[in-house]
């Protein structure tokens, strides 16, 4: 049966990188007979400009009816003065909560060819393969009350609320333990249980869930230490499970271990593996419209889409192999230059090179 994939390019470099990822999907459709139907929608600033809303009903409807969603990035300076409740980022957050995409998988894998592109010493990152499991629909991102209010003194007060319920913690913990069972069987839960009650509960629930996964070795770490350890000795980690905001910050930090944030894909899954797939980076306004962005994070997100939502591990592997071959051939966008002689390529040239490798397989 033909699968519908919603294509939501968004803002900034979003349309540029999604164009390359769509070329990859079209290659799979035309050359590998993958039965897919692509349908585009507006989200973020692009949707605000066209409709006044960052998540128009037509886009939400498309995302709900699709078998999977591919998203570029949202946001940019043009919309920064809008009220936070109607900014582009709300479109993305709305998709995550409406589709109940509570499990965000962010693999942090170093391609061996990029060891010298990392800002860390090659021996510190060689062989790096971490999976960050980020809770995605709770925490201070969605907690109530929130807002800016004026106190009796006339002074303004900004409020956000960090909340987690046991069931929210339990379901993300189960995703993380199940992932660890399939990997090196090590799970590090990252929290701030020494200060924040919501994450004290987090630690209790994760510990309770661990009894159902006796083969997985569970450790706990405070988030400040985890940030330091990720830079000091990142290979100590196998799977990391953490809260929405800590996961956001730690995954940007970890991306640099692999050479560039332009390399890291993600999958945001619901309880039935319906998913939205996007690079972990943003709309990169500083390089938007210049054909400079690295499209590989988005192309690798397509690989995750095939693996998790379309059950086509063979095609996911084919994409990952094609990316590896392109790197082996010495092609580099500017963000992943390391020591050595490389061919510096544009966004489009990188996408074309991946497609050419796929076609040759
Ligand atoms: P960003 O991730 O957009 O950019 C940070 C830096 O990384 C920039 O120097 C940028 O040029 C670089 N970079 C990012 N992606 C790259 C790529 N593919 N290739 C090469 N270089 C790349 O983060 P920011 O600047 O803090 O945010 C910009 C906008 O994006 C904001 O509006 C923010 O809210 C939004 N944002 C959106 C998402 C998303 O849609 N998922 C994620 C993060 C930030
Ligand atoms: C991400 C982004 C988003 C987040 C923003 C744009 C809402 O930084 O996907 O990592 O904070 O989750
Ligand atoms: Mn982020």
From TrEMBL:
Binding site for NAD(+): 76-89, 282-294
UniProt pathway: Amino-acid biosynthesis; L-leucine biosynthesis; L-leucine from 3-methyl-2-oxobutanoate: step 3/4
InterPro entries: IsoCit/isopropylmalate_DH_CS, IsoPropMal-DH-like_dom, Isopropylmalate_DH
Binding site for substrate: 96, 106, 134, 224
Binding residues for Mg(2+): 224, 248, 252
Family: Belongs to the isocitrate and isopropylmalate dehydrogenases family. LeuB type 1 subfamily.
Protein name: 3-isopropylmalate dehydrogenase
Organism the protein comes from: Thioploca ingrica
């Amino acid at each position: 049966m033909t699968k519908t994939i919603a294509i939501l390019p968004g803002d900034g470099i979003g349309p540029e990188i999604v164009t390359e990822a769509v070329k990859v999907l079209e290659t799979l459709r035309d050359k590998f007979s993958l039965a897919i139907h692509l349908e585009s929608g507006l989200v973020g600033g692009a949707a605000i400009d066209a409709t006044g809303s960052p998540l128009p009903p037509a886009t939400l409807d498309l995302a709900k009816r699709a078998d999977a969603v591919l998203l570029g990035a949202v946001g940019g300076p043009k919309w920064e003065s809008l009220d936070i409740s109607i900014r582009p980022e709300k479109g993305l957050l709305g998709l995550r909560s409406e589709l109940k995409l509570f499990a965000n998988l962010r693999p942090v894998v170093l391609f061996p060819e990029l060891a010298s592109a990392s800002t860390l010493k090659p021996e510190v990152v060689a062989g790096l393969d971490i999976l960050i499991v980020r809770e995605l629909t709770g925490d201070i991102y969605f907690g109530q009350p929130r807002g800016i209010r004026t106190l009796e003194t006339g002074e303004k007060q900004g409020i956000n609320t960090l909340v987690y319920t046991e069931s929210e913690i339990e379901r993300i913990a189960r995703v993380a333990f199940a992932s660890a069972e399939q990997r090196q069987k090590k799970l590090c839960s990252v929290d701030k249980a020494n200060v924040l009650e919501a994450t004290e509960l987090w630690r209790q629930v994760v510990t309770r869930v661990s009894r159902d996964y006796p083969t997985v070795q569970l450790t706990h770490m405070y988030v400040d230490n985890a940030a330091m350890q990720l830079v000091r000795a990142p290979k100590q980690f196998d799977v990391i499970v953490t809260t929405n905001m800590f996961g956001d910050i730690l995954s940007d930090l970890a991306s640099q271990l692999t050479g560039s944030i332009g390399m890291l894909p993600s999958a945001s899954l619901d309880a039935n593996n319906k998913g939205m797939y996007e690079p972990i980076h943003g709309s990169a306004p500083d390089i938007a419209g210049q054909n400079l962005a690295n499209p590989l994070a988005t192309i690798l997100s397509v690989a995750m889409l095939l693996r998790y939502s379309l059950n086509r591990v063979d095609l996911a592997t084919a994409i990952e192999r094609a990316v590896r071959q392109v790197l082996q051939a010495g092609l580099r966008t500017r963000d992943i230059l390391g020591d050595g002689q490389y061919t510096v390529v544009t966004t489009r040239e990188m996408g074309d090179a991946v497609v050419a490798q796929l076609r040759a397989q």
